[in-house]
Amino acid sequence: MEVRSIYKYARISPFKAREVTREIQGLPVSAALDLLAFTPKKAAFLIGKTLKSAIANAENNANLKPDGLVVKEAIVGEGPTLKRIMARARGSASRIQKRTSHIRIVLSDEIPMARARGSASRIQKRTSHIRIVLSDEIPIETREKRKAKREQEKKMAKKEIKDEASESAETVAEKKPAKPSTKAKK
Predict the structure, then answer these.
(1) Rounded to 5 degrees, what angle do the CA atoms 172, 177, 181 make?
(2) What is the mean pLDDT of the chain?
(3) Per the domain annotation, does 152 fall within a domain?
């Protein structure tokens, strides 16, 4: 079953709001709320309001539990643009466009089978900075772990290059016979 909520005439540019909605599509509702709570953008607050409204619609109107809900769609459409004028030099004016948007969120209680396989890794990637353990089998990789892993890989690469250089120097020395000096004596 699908439940939806629409926030019309939100005073934010659709371009800015789409940046946040892209991140929550396909996530479980709890993970999406956590992601929005820790995203420092105005769009995250507005989308969070819409998501909470959709959850309330699911609980009260459709008798669904919020634990099993997934964000099926998070779409931001363009609303009407407010046109304003700003005075410029020498008596001219320039237009200011104050854009609005319509935020639509659709929740579903069924998980698509094609996405179910890779959803755990996608959830881990999108919420790795929040440090939430979604299940026992998904280890969350922190910045420190990634940095240590990169440094270890660099060390291994340097070691391999050094070993290859020393091997190639040995083989060149073995193949190259000593040349007699060919200086002309006067």
Answers:
(1) 125
(2) 83
(3) no
